[in-house]
């Protein structure tokens, strides 16, 4: 397909945006758009400048026989902070308090634009670290893990609290559930994670940390390694095992009687 | 932020790709990139041509005070067929058969690139129809619904088979579960779907159809309307209530003894 330069740049931009973290040789574009490799190289230089000036992401060009171009999405701290501030406000809406002092989050975690932004912020917080898979626990964590995995262009892995016949053989571990005050089991399909994977754990809401501790112990069952933990929101009041994690939001008060939630920015922008 | 024309086109393309189905006024771009509205208009014309020639999608320009530009993602039948053919082959791999004659799908439904492509194909099959939300049932359907919702830029709604305290008030219906041969319950949080929504139902695997019939009856409890049903794969052998749906794949044989699965293209390209 032969395109004009300006059209070619639009189409190559689209490709890079939809294929983050993937190395693509310039020859692939040259062949596809019937252009000289040097022209493609110039196109990439312009796209790189535009992406970097607008904080869409970075483009790296590797030279040599196995060379090519890789797009790494990013987000400016300014944009990320504005998104998190907006989420703080949305989470503080007084109609979110449920009986038992829980907070209704499902609307936020099922809106593509919000998920995409959360994914960009979390992925950016672990930029430069090799990540092979994103792990979460069903059901609430799934869209979050999916969003982060979309940006990193790696598979996500869903740990379950129940045994499903459609998962085949599973490995299980016990964990201490804060919400039920009991020891529960969690399961991961044997084929869902390769040994020696480097894994980012993502979850929606961090309370006691039992679920995340459970997932970390699953990692060792799969001879895999923890890169980090990121949560959408944490409960500031909760006693928690010693754990390193990044949070977008910190819920510092849930006042059921007065129907009030106090939400602050989490620790994701620290250091 | 002032950019050169070529850079501006790259940045506007990125915006449109990440904001499908959203009307954005040309003034928004003109202000943001300090350019004349007429220049933005020319940029859009080039992007439109590039997107259409490469089957990335359509760009519609609405004139007048409330006018602007809307990007609708699409996919060529050629590309869609190639993707579905590839999925046919992946599903036919003989190591997918699980005890009980189930097929392991989780790896496909947790790979972002595959999900994105499935989302594009399903969304494209319902193009031109007004859709307010995508509905599915936990857990396997979630990444699929998420993928379709990403393309349509609408929220997705997760029906559950168990009651969760973090969902607040729920509405429940009974459904006939083919896998357990029993009447089961499914639940949907009251606040997750607005009345009069037009809903696309998505699921991973269609057997007896009980789950989907259940979701359809939930729709009427929410005074909402069914736009259509799309499934990743259907079991061709299964007796099924009279139901209209689109399927990407059709599993016509699962031979547990010889470890063989026969998979064909579903009905999504018929019409």
TrEMBL record, chains A, B:
Parts forming coiled coils: none
UniProt keyword annotation of Ribosomal protein present: no
Domain of life: Bacteria
Domain called Phosphoribosyltransferase: residue spans: 107-264
Recorded GO MF terms: DNA binding
Record SUPFAM superfamilies: PRTase-like, Winged helix' DNA-binding domain
GO biological process: negative regulation of DNA-templated transcription; negative regulation of purine nucleobase metabolic process
Keyword DNA-binding: yes
Short name of any one Pfam family annotated for the protein: Pribosyltran
Residue ranges annotated for the Bacterial purine repressor N-terminal domain, each copy included: 4-73
Keywords: DNA-binding, Transcription, Transcription regulation
Subunit structure: Homodimer.
Protein family per UniProt: Belongs to the purine/pyrimidine phosphoribosyltransferase family. PurR subfamily.
Record's protein name: Pur operon repressor PurR
């Amino acid at each position: 397909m032969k395109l004009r330069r300006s059209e070619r740049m639009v189409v190559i931009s689209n490709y890079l945006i939809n294929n983050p973290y993937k190395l693509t040789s310039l020859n692939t574009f040259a062949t596809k758009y019937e252009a000289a490799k040097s022209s493609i190289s110039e196109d990439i230089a312009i796209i790189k400048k535009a992406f970097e000036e607008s904080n869409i992401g970075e483009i790296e060009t590797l030279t040599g026989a196995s060379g090519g171009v890789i797009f790494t999405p990013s987000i400016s701290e300014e944009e990320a902070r504005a998104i998190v501030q907006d989420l703080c406000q949305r989470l503080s809406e007084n109609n979110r308090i449920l009986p038992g002092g829980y907070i209704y989050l499902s609307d936020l975690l099922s809106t593509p634009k919000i998920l995409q932004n959360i994914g960009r912020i979390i992925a950016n917080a672990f930029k430069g670290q090799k990540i092979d898979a994103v792990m979460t626990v069903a059901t609430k964590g799934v869209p979050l893990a999916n969003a982060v995995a979309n940006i990193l262009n790696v598979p996500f892995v869903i740990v379950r609290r129940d045994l499903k016949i459609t998962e085949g053989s599973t490995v299980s571990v016990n964990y201490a559930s804060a919400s039920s005050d009991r020891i529960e089991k969690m399961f991961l399909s044997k084929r869902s994670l390769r040994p020696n994977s480097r894994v980012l754990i993502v979850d929606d809401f961090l309370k006691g940390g039992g679920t995340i501790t459970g997932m970390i112990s699953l990692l060792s069952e799969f001879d895999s390694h923890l890169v980090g933990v990121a949560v959408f929101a944490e409960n500031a009041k909760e006693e928690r095992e010693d754990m390193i994690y990044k949070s977008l939001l910190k819920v510092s008060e849930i006042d059921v009687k007065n129907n009030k939630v106090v939400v602050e920015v989490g620790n994701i922008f620290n250091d």
